[in-house]
Each structure stands twice: as C-alpha cells, then as structure tokens.
Amino acid sequence: MGNGHSAPAAEEKKSTVVADASRDNFVRRLYDSDVGRDFILVSSEGEKRPVHKLILSVASPVFHRTYLSNLEECMTGRCVLKDITSATLEKLLRYAYYGSLEGLSKENAKDVLIAADKYELLEMKEACEDVLIKDIVTNNVSKLLFLSDRVSAEALKRTAVEYIAANAGRPSEVLNNIVNNDVELNSTLYSR
Q1: Which domain holds residue 181?
Q2: Fewer CB within 10 Å, N- or C-terminus of the chain?
C-alpha cells in the first residue's frame, strides 16, 4: 500500500499544471506586450501587426523558412500578406501565440483554412475542416469540395464527396456545378 509512488506522481502532475499555467501566462503577456516585437505583418487591408519572429517561426514552418532566407521580407522586417484579411490574421496570431482557435466559426473557417494551409498550421487546418464539415449542405457542398481540393483538406473532401454521393439520386445544381467546372473532381465523385 505505501510504496511511495503516489505522492511523487501527484507532485509531478501539480508541477506540470503550474508550469503549463505559467507558460500560458507568459505567452499571453508576450502577446499583449510590444516588448521584443521584431517583425511586422501587414494584412490585405493595410493593418500592421508587430510580432515576435521566434513565436511565428515555432508555430509555422513557412514563417521559419522565411526568417532563415534572404527574402526581401527578412531584410525589411516586414511582410505584406496580400491574401490575408485583418480578421484572419488575428486568428492566425492567436493560434501562433496561444494555440487558441477561439472565435472560429462557419463564417470565417474558409478564409482561416486557406491561411492555415498556406502557413502549414496543421492543427488549425484540421479544426477549420471540422467546422466546415459540420456545415455541409446542398447549397455549399460544391464550393467546399473545390476548397478542399485547393488546400488538400482530405477529411473535408471525403465528407463532401460522401454527401454528394448520398444525394446523387436527386437532380441538383451541385452536381451540375461539379460536372461543368472540374474534370478531376468529377472523376473523384464518379469513381466511388
């Protein structure tokens, strides 16, 4: 009964929880502070967001490669993200700093999915897929199928194909859109 293992295990767990809370608090303070910000990201609307290169390069392999390169962005300390809105940039930064996907919704998940794919934020990409999968309906399935193909979102693609296959017996503008717009996706559908 008293082998002495339960107390150290409990202490270790408590220590880990405290360390996690301290780390989260540290990162939260870092996100809220202007101290040490050494790079500027500019959204498509021109909003400038000073960031910490270290945080972004840990979160994103794309940013990591960018910071190690001799690209103009590294020389100027500024990168214009022509295809990223301010709202999407905010989601990316919250994810990079906190690992948080707070505020992810069916309304913004498409834009965030495209950005997550571009910057190789795989967990964020999967979370976006999950949100979009729950929202598949006849009116949006063809757009989601095209999107899934564009960003290699396999779970979303599989679910969209299954949805279309399950509803293939009914005349639908969804199927017409697919047949008329994308030969490769068309063959994916009809190979089932």
Answers
A1: 136-192
A2: N
